[in-house]
Amino acid sequence: MGDAFCSDCKKHTEVVFDHSAGDTVCSECGLVLESHSIDETSEWRTFANESGDNDPVRVGGPTNPLLTDGGLSTVIAKPNGASGEFLSSSLGRWQNRGSNPDRGLIMAFKTIATMSERLGLVATIKDRANEIYKKVEDQKSSRGRNQDALLAACLYIACRQEDKPRTVKEICSVANGATKKEIGRAKEYIVKHLGLEAGQSVEMGTIHAGDFMRRFCSNLGMSNHTVKAATEAVKTSEQFDIRRSPISIAAAVIYIITQLSDDKKLLRDISLATGVAEGTIRNSYKDLYPHVSKIIPAWYANKEDLKNLCSP
Q1: What is the pLDDT of residue 32?
Q2: pLDDT in tens, 42-60
Q3: If I label 262, which of 24, 62, 105, 308 is the partner at 20 to 30 A Cα–Cα?
Q4: CA angle 145-146-148, nearest 5°?
Q5: CA atoms of 155 and 110, how far apart (whole Å)
Q6: Contact call for residues 44 and 147 (beta carbons, < 8 A)
């Protein structure tokens, strides 16, 4: 996509834009130069009339196939002078006061869009969450449930299906007060009911520890050297039967890697950055410890270095 100055390479290098994560990455060393970039797409260009009359453009927003009329409802308005501004007329206000059958969907989609923006998610994930919510809404069986939890669960499932998973804690942070427990229940409800409708299980996508590594390392401000080692280590760990969640393994690998570096991270800080409890990280470390000689890259730490790790 172009080039930019990389602080680790100390030169201008070619960069790659990860559209799913919103990250700008150095192609030579893998350093994240910019994270959570907004995915900007082309918009319609409009040209105002030089005479001062209203802008003659006749195109509105993009159609939305999930809405009854594609989202192309007519809004009645009256011009306000020659500045091109519009004020809703009384008739227009009456028209918009609850007559739109998709009003509930539109509000839900706006909430999903806000949550997506706060998490730095791209449009494909947001659109998938909208589709999931529309299917749930069509069943008319979700009434009485926590709406914020339901929308957050749709976004969680969408991230999984788009192979860019987020932790429940990350989703919870933008869920307007919905708790992890409520989001978890909503997720199970969606998976169950949509699965029954389709006659098959809802595909959730497989989570790997590596899916979270770059983001967690970025949260901790780790150097490119340690990020590279952690990424390799977590990938190698998949060869072993470590019966822990991918998120827990990622957190434990980060703990090991940082303990072998000059920039050691406290267990408390790793817990805050990953959302994994300190006790869970300790238990995962205990499971990984017997395999550290094979998991940790040899270029990062030798056998003597590994002996300095605390025995669990």
Answers
A1: 76
A2: 444 454 444 444 444 445 4
A3: 24
A4: 140
A5: 12
A6: no
